[in-house]
Amino acid sequence: MIPMKxxxxxxxxxxxxVWAAGILxxxxxxxxxxxxxxxxxxxxxxxxxxxxxxxxxxxxKQFEQALNQL
Length: 70
Description:
Helix content: 40-55%
Mean pLDDT: 80
Shape: rod-shaped
Low-confidence stretches: none
Structural class: mainly alpha
Distance between the termini: 53 Å
Number of helices: 3
Strand content: under 5%
Number of strands: 0
């Protein structure tokens, strides 16, 4: 996985710092490549039931009350 022996990386402080900087860069690059959604809290599609029909706020409240009674 590492292109050189790990025992030679830590013989020099500078080589160890370069190696550590490469690891940090890789982690930053991988974490930064995740897609950023500007508004991830709101779903752009309206809520639907199993048949595909849209759900009214009254039905949402009724469902919430049924869950609370469990």
